[in-house]
Amino acid sequence: xxxxxxxxxxxxxxxxxxxxxxxxxxxxxxxxxxxxxxxxxxxxxxxxxxxxxxxxxxxxxxxxxxxxxxxxxxxxxxxxxxxxxxxxxxxxxxxxxxxxxxxxxxxxxxxxxxxxxxxxxxxxxxxxxxxxxxxxxxxxxxxxxxxxxxxxxxxxxxxxxxxxxxxxxxxxxxxxxxxxxxxxxxxxxxxxxxxxxxxxxxxxxxxxxxxxxxxxxxxxxxxxxxxxxxxxxxxxxxxxxxxxxxxxxxxxxxxxxxxxxxxxxxxxxxxxxxxxxxxxxxxxxxxxxxxxxxxxxxxxxxxxxxxxxxxxxxxxxxxxxxxxxxxxxxxxxxxxxxxxxxxxxxxxxx
Length: 350
Ligand code: ADP
Ligand code: MG
Fold this sequence. Notes:
Layout: E1 2-11, E2 21-29, E3 33-37, H1 44-52, E4 59-64, E5 67-71, E6 74-75, E7 83-86, H2 98-103, H3 114-123, H4 139-151, E8 157-161, H5 169-185, E9 189-194, H6 197-203, E10 206-211, E11 214-219, H7 221-226, H8 231-236, E12 241-248, E13 251-254, E14 257-260, E15 273-278, E16 284-285, E17 291-300, E18 305-311, E19 320-324, E20 335-339, E21 346-348
Magnesium ion (MG) binds at residues 44-45, 161.
């Protein structure tokens, strides 16, 4: 069941010529953690600010639990939405203690009880810190107080705008795991905004990719990695090879030679020109491999080595890559045969 239904919303800021968010539609399912990812400036914050009620869409509508939140000329005010928010710069109130900060968002003052603050301190691992002030706790703890404060009014949906940006990488890994558990335990649906694919991979049940105000693809993390809709999405989630191809008599013509169209592809949906996209780890070296290639160079990346290659005798500058474990060295000019399993290939028209 969808808790949030976003239908064709757009927003153009007065000072701008083009929309910051351009006719997007997205459903968030109850209890899922959904990540909205994209480069800086693509419209992520604008999108959740509209869901929170901090901006009004120029057009389109948003429904929360089936109830209309927004439509041209109509908007439920933020405080009436019962949606929690956590921001990147989690400004806690400096003159309030941790405990008071956590209880602050609970509207019914009789509900701002000791038990409640103890519950959230416990839930977010802040036991014993309730009486401290924000400047007396660490960055990771500030983040957890902000999360507790957003959860305390028990919203069904919580929006998070890049809440992990300022955290040290090791603290961040811990926080991501904890936040996932807390959201699960409290049955809270979450829309997380991030420009970091690793955060989305670790936390999200589903991911939506945004670019220049539009949504490109929504899918589960492994599906997004394996079957990106285009080369942009492919690159966003990891290194990729894009082999330019041309459909020719039911086969793909490529610089490496002819490749059979994998049987899983729907032939009649393919455009004449496009790319066969796959991951460098999918390229397999073997004596009877399908393609003969020549090593151009190798780069050391610590955890792995990236080996650049081109089709043999190719005049073209287009290079591809495979990854090897450290110590497997291939000198430039080495000729090898490689294969790419058909089930690893995705066709992208752009
Ligand atoms: P993101 O969160 O993905 O980085 P934003 O939603 O903040 O992107 O911004 C989308 C676009 O809208 C950017 O081009 C940004 O400069 C512009 N923008 C954001 N807020 C405003 C504003 N209040 N007034 C005018 N333009 C804005
Ligand atoms: Mg933003």
